[in-house]
Design a protein that fits this description.
The chain has helices at about 5-25, 30-55, 60-70, 80-100, 105-130, 135-160, 175-200, 200-230, 245-265. It is mainly alpha-helical.
């Protein structure tokens, strides 16, 4: 008996989630290995997407800068991130402007910078959350679970009960009903996570859940827009029912940034 495309998507997503959580629970080596793998895959897929969007991100800028941003402040502390970004900003731009035959140099440079930030900054925030203290593991696990549930509920409720289009121009299958269900799911996960391990006041748990839901749905829309501009259905074909790593993990990227800065400014990390 063959499985429906929706069921294939759900099952493969569940397998990926279990593998990722398993790596996280292995400890520091599992976390680092997972970050290296996911960062490399998503940077590689972004480079392919950038080519379809009209300005191929240069490997010599995208991969080193994206990798440094990912591990800055945790494993890479010798050189400030501000200095590295300044070198990439000024040096990379000058290289592209003055090399002969680089008519689209400015666009390629901008795409390389954008890709490194788009992927490197969220992964960096996950590492900063993980190493923030005794509750670091809980932060990472529950943010990922909340973002994943947002994605699943938005898909299930949207496909079954959705009637009102949500950003139809970017993603015609998304619905308001699905988005609301995803948002509620994220809040419930963060409230549960607070009760189990994080120990957050209820208002902070709800606020973080809302941020995760908004970030997850926003990240999904951003990647959908990139694929629409590039005229492709998936970022690659690595994961059955999902496409590539970016297609699967687009919804967990932005939540990490929102949660890390909310928790940092609110004094919630210990």
């Amino acid at each position: 008996m063959s499985l429906s495309p929706l069921m294939v998507r759900i099952l493969s997503g569940a397998v990926v989630l279990v593998v990722c959580l398993g790596a996280i629970f292995l400890g520091v080596y599992g976390v680092v290995g997972l970050c290296v793998l996911l960062t490399a895959l998503m940077l590689w897929e972004f480079r392919g997407l950038s080519d379809k969007m009209g300005s191929r991100a240069p490997s010599w800028l995208l991969y080193p800068l994206g990798s440094y941003i990912t591990f800055s402040g945790t494993f890479l502390r010798g050189i400030s991130l501000q200095l590295i970004l300044s070198i990439a900003l000024v040096g990379g731009l000058l290289v592209f402007l003055f090399l002969p035959g680089r008519r689209e140099g400015l666009g390629r440079w901008a795409m390389g910078m954008a890709g490194a930030l788009y992927i490197g900054l969220p992964m960096n925030c996950y590492l900063l959350l993980y190493f923030s203290g005794h509750g670091g593991l809980g932060w990472v696990v529950f943010v990922i679970l909340a973002a994943a549930l947002t994605d699943v509920l938005a898909l299930l409720v949207g496909s079954r009960l959705g009637r009102t289009p949500f950003f139809r121009r970017i993603s015609p299958h998304k619905t308001v009903e699905g988005a609301v269900a995803g948002l509620i799911g994220a809040v419930l996960v963060m409230v549960f996570g607070s009760l189990v391990t994080l120990g957050l006041p209820l208002q902070h748990a709800v606020a973080i859940g809302i941020l995760v839901g908004i970030g997850a749905e926003g990240g999904d829309l951003v990647e959908s827009q990139m694929k629409r501009i590039g005229g492709v259905k998936d970022s690659s074909s690595l994961i059955p029912g999902h496409g590539g790593a970016l297609d699967r993990f687009d919804s967990i990227l932005f939540p990490a940034i929102l949660v890390f800065y909310y928790a940092s400014f609110g004094g919630l990390l210990r």
